[in-house]
Amino acid sequence: MKKFEVVNSSSSLSETIFNSIKLEILKGNLKPNQSLSQKEVADNFNVSRIPVREAFVKLESMGFLQKRINSRYYVQAFSVKEIEDLYDTRLILELEGLKMAFPHYSKIDIILYDGMVQQMEHITDSGDYIILNAKFHELLLEKCPNKQLVAFINQLWDGVALYSPSIITNQSHFPNHEHKELINAIKQNDLNTALSVYEQHIVNAKKRLLKYIQ
């Protein structure tokens, strides 16, 4: 049983365990269909099974784990159809979110986004890239005034995060040039170009993933 990195140690036990397991999945250290034992996780954190069970239930509800007929938990795996549906839904919702967010970007926002893209340019660890990439998209779309739409997009990104290790780990180059093109369009206040770049960004991510798993 691997040792988990403790995340947010000031949180409740179940939240700490939840965040630690989620991080290992995001980094690709826990693979699709890999089983997780409540007892082993409890021993790892030196806690009872109660907070572990709570963490597993939350991970299952968010799509990170799957409870099977033998009552064991496994890291979620997805079919080609599920992946296609997820990215097609991303395309619809995130383009609308970007369109609604666009008038609300301030100079400070753009400096922040640009800095994150520059930071991604120098990242060599795939796990760090995955986490920063997700945060970049979250901040970019949180300016959308329709908070219900933002909530739906954030839920979708839990699924996106599960696939990210598969398409990014072991790549020699991370897909950061598309982020640069997007930020340049935002700097120039060019909504049409921003939407076009963002659409191609999602389409390319979908193609990379489908190519990887097929």
UniProtKB/TrEMBL annotation:
InterPro entries: GntR_C (IPR011711), TF_FadR/GntR_C (IPR008920), Tscrpt_reg_HTH_GntR (IPR000524), WH-like_DNA-bd_sf (IPR036388), WH_DNA-bd_sf (IPR036390). Keywords: DNA-binding, Transcription, Transcription regulation. PROSITE patterns: HTH_GNTR. Residues 11-78 form the HTH gntR-type domain. The keyword Transcription regulation applies. GO terms for molecular function: DNA binding; DNA-binding transcription factor activity. This is GntR family transcriptional regulator. It comes from Ureibacillus chungkukjangi.
